[in-house]
Specification:
Strand content: under 5%
Distance between the termini: 75 Å
Shape: elongated
Helix content: over 70%
Oligomer: single chain
Radius of gyration: 30 Å
Length: 236
């Protein structure tokens, strides 16, 4: 009887032990996953993350090269000239390829049809539902920006408004040296260089950033202690 009861109990024990085993985490630790998003779906944010971290060298190089050339062209020529030259270059490529394929088809007497037929048949229409989704997503950011602007300009927090004033004062000196296109070029160079450098030297950079953050926090606390309005708010 003891052997029979042990035999009947063994399946339940084994099933409970197997059920107690932790399941493998889904979405974590994969090489292509976006570290900033964790287990959430990457989507467009993960695509941008992979782009600036040079996950695909060819794709990032193409985007970086084309945007940099466009910004350099805008720095040397007017917007109308740059756009016109880009459209002319694109039309030159497509028209030349179309004529070339037409001549080849006429010589070989083939009926391949239009060389861009596959691209012409692609449905690029934007549905009303997708348009409303984009508008709603944009409105969330617009409303958030409006609230931030009102909070800063109406001095809800004195320290934040002073930070904005100091930043704008520094930007007057930056604007006297650089124009908008130059700043965009510098921003692109930083976007495509700083993240990959930070990824390689993360430990050292975090160490020095932590030291600078502590010193900045100490200075801000001293300033807040000397401001009567902030000191009163903290006392309450």
């Amino acid at each position: 009887m003891a052997e029979l009861s042990a035999a009947t109990q063994s399946p339940s024990v084994s099933s409970s032990s197997s059920g107690a085993e932790p399941s493998a985490p889904s979405g974590g630790g994969s090489p292509g996953a976006c570290p900033a998003l964790g287990a959430r779906s990457c989507g467009s944010s993960c695509a941008v993350h992979d782009l600036i971290f040079w996950r695909d060298v060819k794709k990032t190089g193409f985007v970086f090269g084309t945007t940099l050339i466009m910004l350099l062209s805008l720095a040397a020529f007017s917007v109308i000239s740059v756009v016109s030259y880009l459209i002319l270059a694109l039309l030159s490529v497509t028209i030349s390829f179309r004529v070339y394929k037409s001549v080849i088809q006429a010589v070989q007497k083939s009926e391949e049809g239009h060389p861009f037929k596959a691209y012409l048949d692609v449905d690029i229409t934007l549905s009303s539902e997708a348009f409303h989704n984009y508008v709603n997503a944009a409105m969330v950011h617009i409303n958030r920006a409006l609230k931030l602007i009102i909070r800063l300009f109406l001095v809800e927090d004195l320290v934040d408004s002073l930070k904005l004033a100091v930043f704008m004062w520094l930007m007057t000196y930056v604007g006297a040296v650089f124009n908008g296109i130059t700043l965009l070029i510098l921003a692109e160079l930083l976007i495509f260089s700083v993240p990959i450098v930070y990824e390689k030297y993360k430990t050292q950079i975090d160490h020095y950033v932590g030291i600078a953050r502590e010193q900045t926090k100490a200075i801000v606390e001293k300033i807040q202690a000397k401001l009567p309005g902030i000191a009163k708010k903290k006392a309450e």
